[in-house]
């Protein structure tokens, strides 16, 4: 039995939710379920029969993903599904509502549309890194079946011929937690707002940029691609706040940045293992330029994204869950407590999430068949806008999603990139919707 997976003859294999996942079932609602999508576009039309076979065959390779949400007296659990999910043709827009009934059947979906394969995950089972590992494995297995070849191991893609390691299935938060918890005190940030789209439609605008030009501009400003994108986004939100809010009432503008803890702690779990930092500036102090914001981003990241401080941040989440009263409290009471805590400290310290998976690589023999990857995170509990990024094949794909009608943030953000000399091609599902 691998890792933290346990077995009950009455229930099948099961495991506890990792520490990051505990909050998501407690605060889900019809307007918000924490899901995200990863997708791959191939050079050929998808055969759904072959895709289903690939999904079926990967079930044993990804035991922490082929699960459903179980409900107990004291805790939620993740329980092995009896059968893999059925692949479906993509029919609407990314990240349609995943209701409680569906989560109790399976916590992820697989779609196809023309040349695209997409997987959508309820965040209780994995994060972007785990989701990308799965979609790469699914694409590779599909291509193996279509073209009757076998990809050698050690190529950066998990294959059906490998058994899942114990490390892949562990709750790394418990393993890497510090002894002392870092206080959660932090100043509330400016909040984005707009006209909620009552239809539930998720508006998606994708900017496609040449990665080399993006890197060139980031290096010119002495920062990383993520630092540069966060600085541009910060500057755009500062400009929006300046128009809407009197100077004396303005708030800090901070970007919520997920930190992949696998790199800091040298672990490789396929479950959730990321924490967020809220990084930004206070426009009441001065009118920061993009270059100055880049320096602040690098300074704050270097100060906070270090193992000892992240271990203390992990402890702030792990230690309360170990409290005897909390462990013995019924699930309904835990849900009330977690909702209250999340409303007070969960999202009001940042303006928008920018989640960057970085560069995605595929084995050289698969590159001619794989044209593109995308990563789309949903809107948050209170964030009406969100942003996710990855790079592949010389292009960087920036997906900006929203549940409001106004396009001001996207317009400002991509326009500023163009003004800085970076060409941007735009795609939108609003165009698809109208056409």
Characterise this structure.
The chain is α+β, with helices and mostly antiparallel strands and 435 residues long. The chain folds into two domains: 6-176, 2-Layer Sandwich (Chloramphenicol Acetyltransferase); 203-308 and 346-434, Nonribosomal peptide synthetase, condensation domain (Chloramphenicol Acetyltransferase, 2-Layer Sandwich). Helix content is 35%, strand content 23%. It contains 15 helices and 16 strands. The protein has helices at residues 23-27, 48-57, 100-103, 128-147, 166-169, 172-176, 211-220, 225-244, 261-265, 290-304, 307-322, 324-328, 331-345, 408-419, 429-434, and strands at 6-8, 12-16, 35-42, 67-71, 76-80, 88-89, 108-113, 116-122, 203-210, 253-260, 274-281, 352-359, 370-377, 385-392, 395-402, 425-428. The strands form three sheets. The chain has a seven-stranded mixed beta sheet. A hairpin with a 4-residue loop joins strand 4 and strand 5. Helix 8 crosses helix 10 (290-304). The N and C termini lie far apart (51 Å). The model has no long low-confidence stretch (mean pLDDT 92).
Rg (CA only): 21 Å
**Strand segment tally:** 16
The CATH topology name of the largest domain reads Chloramphenicol Acetyltransferase
Structural class based on helices, strands and sheet pairing: alpha+beta
Give short descriptive properties of this protein:
435 residues; 15 helices; globular; alpha+beta; Chloramphenicol Acetyltransferase; five-stranded mixed beta sheet; seven-stranded mixed beta sheet; 2 domains
């Amino acid at each position: 039995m691998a890792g933290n997976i346990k077995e009950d003859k009455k229930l099948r294999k099961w495991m506890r939710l990792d520490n990051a996942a505990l909050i998501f079932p407690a605060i889900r609602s019809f307007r918000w379920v924490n899901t995200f999508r990863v997708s791959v576009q191939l050079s050929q039309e998808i055969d759904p029969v072959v895709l289903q076979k690939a999904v079926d065959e990967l079930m044993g390779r990804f035991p922490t993903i082929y699960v459903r949400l179980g409900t107990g007296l004291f805790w939620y659990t993740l329980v092995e599904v009896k059968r893999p999910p059925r692949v479906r043709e993509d029919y609407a827009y990314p990240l349609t509502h995943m209701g409680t009934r569906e989560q109790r059947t399976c916590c992820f979906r697989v779609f196809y549309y023309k040349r695209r394969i997409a997987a959508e995950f309820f965040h209780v089972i994995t994060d972007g890194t785990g989701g990308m590992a799965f979609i790469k494995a699914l694409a590779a297995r599909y291509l193996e079946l279509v073209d009757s070849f076998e990809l050698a191991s050690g190529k950066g893609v998990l294959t059906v011929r490998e058994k899942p390691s114990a490390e892949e299935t562990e709750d790394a938060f418990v393993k890497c937690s510090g002894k002392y918890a870092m206080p959660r005190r932090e100043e509330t940030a400016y909040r984005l707002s707009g006209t909620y789209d009552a239809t539930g439609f998720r508006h998606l605008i994708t900017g496609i940029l040449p990665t080399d030009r993006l890197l060139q501009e980031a290096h010119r400003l002495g920062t990383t691609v993520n630092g540069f994108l966060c600085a541009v986004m910060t500057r755009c939100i500062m400009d929006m706040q300046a128009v809407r809010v009197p100077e004396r009432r303005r708030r800090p503008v901070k970007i919520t940045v997920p930190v992949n803890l696998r790199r800091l702690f040298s672990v490789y779990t396929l479950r959730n293992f990321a924490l967020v930092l809220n990084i930004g500036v206070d426009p009441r102090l001065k009118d920061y330029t993009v270059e100055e914001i880049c320096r602040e981003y690098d300074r704050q990241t270097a100060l906070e994204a270090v193992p000892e401080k992240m271990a203390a941040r992990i402890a702030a989440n792990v230690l309360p869950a170990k409290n005897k009263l909390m462990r013995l409290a019924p699930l309904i009471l835990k849900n009330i407590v977690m909702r209250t805590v999340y409303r007070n400290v969960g999202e009001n310290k940042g303006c928008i999430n920018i989640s960057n998976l970085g560069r995605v690589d595929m084995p050289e023999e698969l590159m001619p068949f794989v044209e593109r990857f995308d990563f789309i995170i949903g809107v948050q509990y209170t964030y009406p806008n969100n942003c996710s990024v990855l790079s592949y094949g010389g292009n960087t794909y920036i997906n900006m999603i929203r549940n409001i009608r106004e396009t001001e943030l996207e317009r400002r953000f991509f326009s500023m990139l163009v003004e800085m000399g970076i060409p941007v091609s735009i795609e939108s599902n609003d165009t698809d919707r109208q056409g």
